[in-house]
Amino acid sequence: MRIIVIGASGTIGKAVAEELGKTHEIIRAGRNGADVKVDITSIDSLKNMYKQTGKVDAVVSATGSAYFGPLSELTPELNETAIESKLKGQINAVLVGMDYVNDGGSFTLTTGILMDDPILKGASAAMANGGVKAFVKAAAIEMPRGIRINSVSPNVVQESWHKYSGLFPGFDPVPVSRVALAFKKSVEGAQTGQNYEVY
Ligand SMILES: NC(=O)c1ccc[n+]([C@@H]2O[C@H](COP(=O)([O-])OP(=O)(O)OC[C@H]3O[C@@H](n4cnc5c(N)ncnc54)[C@H](OP(=O)(O)O)[C@@H]3O)[C@@H](O)[C@H]2O)c1
User: Fold this and answer.
1) What spacing in Å lies between the alpha carbon of 1 and ligand 1's midpoint?
2) Most buried of 24, 102, 143, 148 (most Cβ within 10 A)?
């Protein structure tokens, strides 16, 4: 399969690209130093990415930013980061990319554990995760041409623990290789409308 991995230079995206790259052709996408440049917060940039790649069999999004901070300090402006990037950015990658995915192909988006297992300072990210999960479940029943759509909800990964450990007390991080396998299941399997929890 030809597979676009958005966020392929990131902690999770790199592991996904490596896992899927064993048996598929990977097109790495991101804002810097990728095979194709894309900023998911820009619809024009998404359109441009798909124009450059042409038809593909799968699109994986392993990206999406969010503001982490106390709810009392979360302003509408700060909340926009998660809305523009993790929520709308990933959903627009589907809406703009639909015609570029071959019959029977798939989209796989990324959510995260904190929507189900809340942490302090995580409300904005949880909002975006929940929106993505709901979109995936609802969109799955009317995707055209046998196209499937799923999301992967990772626990904190061991490789990111140094960045996030203070935010996730008592969590038991998982190896990123396990998260990559959930993306493989989504891309190579037959299920749709799922949110694969790797907790
Ligand atoms: N790491 C974890 O423990 C963990 C756990 C649960 C959920 N998640 C979720 O998994 C996703 C990836 O996390 P990560 O830790 O792997 O992130 P990361 O290491 O910071 O990597 C982010 C990747 O996305 C790209 N990117 C960032 N903003 C972009 C944009 N606007 N448009 C296109 N590409 C963009 C980056 O490359 P460029 O900078 O070159 O664009 C990079 O390749 C996020 O949604 C995160 O919330 C992560």
Assistant:
1) 23
2) 148
Give per-residue pLDDT as tens, 68-85.
999 999 999 999 999 999
* H helix or E strand, kind and range, residue 73: none
Identify the DSSP state of 120: T
> What is the rounded distance in angstroms from the CA atom of residue 29 to the CA atom of residue 38?
6
Q: Which pTM was predicted?
A: 0.98
pLDDT beyond 90 at 165 = no
Residue 41 DSSP symbol:
T
As a whole number of angstroms, the distance between CA 88 and CA 91 comes to: 5
- Mutating to test ligand 1, I would choose from 6, 12, 163 the residue with most ligand atoms within 8 A of its C-beta, which is 12
pLDDT on residue 51: 98
Outline where DSSP puts E strands in 38-78: 56-61
d(CA 162, CA 152): 22
Domain locations in the chain as residue ranges? 2-198
Which residues sit with their C-beta closer than 6 Å to ligand 1?
A: 6-13, 30-32, 38-41, 62-65, 85-86, 89, 110, 112, 154, 156-157, 160
User: Whole-angstrom Cα distance, residue 81 to residue 87?
Assistant: 9
State percent of the chain over pLDDT 90: 98
The domain 2-198: what is its CATH number?
A: 3.40.50.720
